[in-house]
Amino acid sequence: MLVLCRIIFAAILAYQAVAIPLVTIADSQNLTSGALSVLRTYEKFGATVPHEIKLAARGNSGSVTVTPTQYDTEYLLPAQVGPPSTPKTYQLTLDTGSSSFVIYSSTTSQTLSETVTIGSIVVPSQTVQFSAPSGTFDPPDSDGSLGLAFSNPSNKVPAPPKTFFENAAPTLAQSLFTVNLKKGKPGTLTFGAIDTSQYSGTITYVSVNSANGFWEITSNGYAIGSSAFVSSSIDAVVDTGTTLLYLPTAVVKAYYAKVSGATYNSNQGGYVFPCTASLPSITLGVGAYRAVTPGSYVNYAPLDTSSTTCFGGIQADTGIGFSIFGDIFIKSQFLVFKGPAQPMLGFAAKPL
After folding, report:
1. What is the pLDDT of residue 108?
2. Which runs of consecutive H residues, i.e. helices, occur in 154-278?
3. Pick the catalytic residue: 61, 63, 72, 95?
4. Taking 60 as the threshold, does the pLDDT of residue 134 lie above it?
């Protein structure tokens, strides 16, 4: 009789529940104990957790360190993949410009459902793609990629696998993650909370156009150094997985016109300048906020062992279809990615 009751109970729950990916609560200090107790009961008996229980049990948050490779080419974070008793740790590229969770493998090519832990956030059934590196596209220092863009912007049926953030979002204290990259030193990726000690002033939010699957915004203009702000509509994707800052050709030409010795070098594939050159700042408008990237951040890397000529961190977006606010820009700002529903991007100044 007891077994029969449990079967009936589970069937009723399955009928009434809203199917949302299950997320284990790894750090329950701030959770309402009653809701957490109910959630754990559902988990224990293998029942689908009702939507309202997941909402009531929200309170999960956690941070992880992101570490730059040489010249801040990419930012890596540790992710544990596999059974909780015997997980394997991978160093993944933080990539808000893709939606795939990829681990590079030279021995197998398959897609599996794995338990993934990042910081204190645990997703028991994350779709992970194991595949061979695709050459120059996949950075040599990385074991794979943590995609945090949008998995199904056009509502395809059947739906593609959800991202780690989309799976974790229902039980986060706040449905967001923040990015605080730093120049030449470790920064922070935080899920579910906004650490007010990481930024100064207020956060300015702008709407996101996710129709193309990206965190895509419209910047309202730019300024070079101390020059006046120029109003201009710039369609841009904010992507931690892109190293450089790609802007419209007119903006790029105007910038390097202010740099002594700067030229476009077709052999190098972009603008170069003497490594000793003084570089102006670049300011990009985001709503009423003016996001300033220091000139020193625009010196990406030397092109020779004597550090005579350097490659510019700002390049033209010709042929891409939109501008890209990559790490040259992102590491000068504190960013808040709100979503996945009704997505918004927040920008704030921070100590550099």
Report:
1. 82
2. 164-168, 249-256
3. 95
4. yes
- Cα 137–chain centre separation: 18
The rounded distance, in Å, linking the Cα atoms of 278 and 296 is: 8
- More confident: 29 or 218: 218
Contact 256, 271 (CB under 8 A): yes
Q: Is 219 one of the catalytic residues?
A: yes
Share of the chain above pLDDT 70, in %: 84
Buried b (16+ CB within 10 A) or exposed e, 94-130: bbbbbbbbbbbeeeeeeeeebbbbbbbbbbbebbbbb
136 φ, ψ to 5°? -65, -20
User: Is 193's pLDDT higher than 60?
Assistant: yes
Residues linked to residue 131 through DSSP beta bridges, in sequence order? 104
95 has catalytic annotation: yes
State both tokens at 3.
């077994």
What b/e readout covers 193-222, taking b as 16+ CB neighbours within 10 angstroms?
Answer: bbeeebbeeebbbbebebeebbbbbebbbb
Residue with tokens 């832990």: 117
| Model pLDDT, residue 174 | 94
Determine how many CB atoms are found less than 10 A away from the CB of residue 246: 24
Residue pair 137/196 in contact by the 8 Å Cβ criterion: no
Beta bridge partners of 64: 189
Q: Provide the whole-model pTM.
A: 0.84
Identify the three-state secondary structure at position 228: coil
The residue annotated as part of the active site, out of 100, 219, 323, 332, is 219
Strand 88-95 versus strand 144-147 pairing type: parallel
Q: Which residues contact 289 (CB under 8 A, 6 or more apart)?
A: 204, 347, 348
Chain segment 285-335, per-residue pLDDT in tens: 999 999 999 999 999 999 999 999 999 999 999 999 999 999 999 999 999
